[in-house]
Amino acid sequence: MKYGKKQKEKSKPLEISSGAEFKISDINMCGNYVVYLTVTYFFMVLSQTCNLLFMTFADRKPKVEDFCEKKYSDYMSTKICNVSNCWVTTNRSGNVICSTNTYDFIPISYDFDIPMEYVKLGTTIQNIGLMIGAIVAGNIADILGRKKVLLSFTIGLIIFLIVTPFSPSFIVFTIFRFFDMIFTGGKHCVCNPYFMENLPDKHRMWVATVVTYSPNYIILAGIAYLCKNWKILSWVTAGIAVLPLIMIPFLMDTPRWLIKKGKDKKASKAAVCIRKWDEELTPEKEKKIIAVVENAAKEELTKKKKGKNYYFYHLFSNWKLGSYAVVFATSLFSTSFISYGIAYNMDALAGTVYINVIILGAARWSINILAAGLEFSIRSVGRRLLHLVAVGFIAVIMAIIFVIYIFTWPKINTYKAVIKAGGTGEGSILAIIIFTRYASLLAAAMCTELFVLDTVQPAELFPTPIRSTGIAFIQIFNRLGTIVSPLVFIPSKHWPPAPFLLMLITSAADFLLYFFLVPETRGMKLPDNMPGEEDNLCEDRTQSTEYTTDITNVESYDSVSTSTSRQSRKNAKTETETRTGEDEDKSRKSEEGKERWRMENRV
């Protein structure tokens, strides 16, 4: 039977035989092109990490030693301060320095005399740029292609990073930083799917786990420690962004994206160029690649013409779909609110900002690897268990800190005042402060797992026609959480336990809504039809396989092989059995595709 099948395939046209021998997923191999792409992506992520957490360092508070009132209480009316010192004028000695401000990093307050609340509000305004950038870049990339957007947004980011340190006022600084974040948000939206689409299937899991934002937290802490100044950090970040600017022109737009857009000529050209990085293509092999790519692009155009259009309101046309949207919108808002709320307010925690950022990055990376290993190796560890454990842990930590602060915050404030004046405080209060520091950092690090799960599960629950719409909707709340996160510790000025109460409320809401409304999705077939629609089994099987084998919601486009199998099925009963066996093999690979996608989103 196998011999007969081979003989038939030899007699078919070039396009069909090439479809059986070569797949779209075979374009990328773990060779020179992928190594070059990974290095480029690493520098893009590093520059974006530096910009995302820029205000973590630029908003540093000085370490103050103030003994003015203790030693010169009679002369407090003469007290005058600048950014470095405070002094009083005495009858005997004249001007005497009685307070000193020491900086482990020169912040923007050193150059702009502004209240803390204004800085936090400015950070919030900057983060609005993240949302705008993601929306603008996503739409432009859909029209012009990802490579052009990455190039143009990298240039814009470099320009504004260079000019930001020349800001004459805090208002101008905030405007420049707003544009910095527009370009950062745009690059973040585009570079991640661009990178994942180019990775070989079997290497996506470990590469996506190693090359993420988490380890770059550690690198950023080292860079900031060497810079010691917000202006220098901005220029160094611009210098880092120059590296991908030089490297991106040598990359190609992803063949999968070009196929999805039906651009067969550009897709085949990109596929051939990518393969030439790693091997010398014979004219015959080049024709085979072109045939496969062009066939896939034509099938995609045909599929688009037959498809029915769905819109935003369809997301809430069904109770279950609407509840999923609300749950994951709440979860992403809470996760961003807590994660970036702590990252932007490191001054509220004990220790130096450098060590805290290193701890946060190392903990995030460790959690990424641990959770990936558990889910990959233990079948009973599913999405639901991981989500409930992660958000439950965060809620418990916030509840403990909140209760501790209710009973001890007056003593904590007294302890800080004593230390500020050069004294020694109670050991028990010091222990509470240390516990708050590490517990808060660990809770923020745990958010990395929720970011992953809140990316994977919605795609497993929303049907194919509204999957992109549903994910876009919940990601809006992700950005909203980031926008308001710098303000979370402002209420502590009036009531210190308030920030932890707010984070407890959001995490508890996430836990309860998820517990009652979201089912386990591990091992479930991706829904391809809206609720109430009649399933087309043949299309269902094909679309589910195509979707789950691609990490970034771009279909796999192995449809040439599927088309070949359909033609073979019409010829003989034996070939029908062969086709059935191939479909069963694809179904088995479907779950493996989900696992790969789940690992790749671990950022």
From TrEMBL:
Gene3D superfamilies xrefs: MFS general substrate transporter like domains
Biased composition (Polar residues): 544-566
Stretches that traverse the bilayer: 33-54, 125-144, 150-176, 205-226, 232-252, 321-342, 354-373, 385-408, 428-452, 498-517
Pfam families reported for this sequence: Sugar_tr (PF00083)
Subcellular location: Membrane
Keyword Cytoplasm belongs to the record: no
Stretches for region Disordered: 527-603
Bias (Basic and acidic residues) ranges: 572-603
Main location: membrane
InterPro entries named in the record: MFS_dom, MFS_sugar_transport-like, MFS_trans_sf, Sugar_transporter_CS
Keywords: Membrane, Transmembrane, Transmembrane helix
Membrane found in the keyword field: yes
Gene Ontology CC annotation, any one: membrane
Membrane topology: Multi-pass membrane protein
GO MF annotations in UniProt: transmembrane transporter activity
PROSITE patterns: MFS (PS50850), SUGAR_TRANSPORT_1 (PS00216)
Major facilitator superfamily (MFS) profile domain mapped to chain residues: 33-522
Protein name: Major facilitator superfamily (MFS) profile domain-containing protein
Organism of this sequence: Cercopithifilaria johnstoni
